[in-house]
Amino acid sequence: xxxxxxxxxxxxxxxxxxxESSYGQSHDxxxxxxxxxTPEPETVSLYTALPKNGSFVTKNPxxxxxxxEGYALGTDxxxxxxxxxxxxxxxxxxxxxxxxxxxxxxxxxxxxxxKEQGNYYVLxxxxxxxxxxxxxxxxxxxxxxxxxxxALKGEKTFAVTTFYLEDQTNHLGIDLAKPYLTYNEPGNQMxxxxxxxxxxxxxxxxxxxxxxxxxxxxxxxxxxxxxLTIWQPYYIYGLxxxxxxxxxxxxxxxxxxxxxxxxxxKRTITIR
Length: 272
Description:
It is a single chain. The chain is mainly β. It has a single domain (31-271), classed as Sandwich (Immunoglobulin-like), CATH 2.60.40. Helix content is 10%, strand content 38%. The chain contains two helices and 17 strands. It has helices at residues 2-25, 81-84; strands at 31-34, 45-50, 55-57, 63-69, 93-98, 104-106, 116-117, 120-128, 136-145, 159-165, 180-185, 198-205, 215-220, 224-228, 234-237, 242-251, 264-271. The protein has a five-stranded mixed sheet, with no helix packed on it. The chain has a four-stranded antiparallel sheet with strand order 1-15-12-11, with no helix packed on it. 25% of the residues are buried.
């Protein structure tokens, strides 16, 4: 009898530990929902003036100059979405991605005065990269973003430039003619809170998503996995307070990660 009681207690303890372990790893409370992209005008365009593509820069800090047409920086994006998710007090910005680093946001005063030409305007912005770069080849990817972080995805709203710093070595193995992914949100530039959905957003170049073609794999906290076959913004619901990891991977038709330095990106975010 004592043996059976001991065996029963052992089994109950084992089941309890297993249940606790499963509960600790479960992310059933996280939900993902696709949302319609915010409408955007066809007149918006972005052009990189400096550094010129393929140019040689002699030293840090690296300065960037861009021309923005048809898009006002520093103002709120007046859409319902700004009340649904985190909204930056910087207003509309440029998101600037250097190599594989998280973006930094720019809404600096324009170099030239405000110019009106019908229903659009052209402004130039000049700013420095806020960190030092190693010698070799570097890539700048830029796009305008709404005050709540969503990237504009028009034909002329994405600008990419490569340049060399101090040394003309391609240590990244970059081929910008092939498909690649640019991670946008979520990031720690936004004040993310537990009671609001979190924006998931990315930019695709040289490919389209489909069920039997290219796909994006989303992994949250190394266990919640979803495969995305539509290029659109998404809302992530249910992230608890604390730190979380978000990973995006660009997959081919065989569900293999597409080669390239930008196609497997992981970010750590904080929910307060």
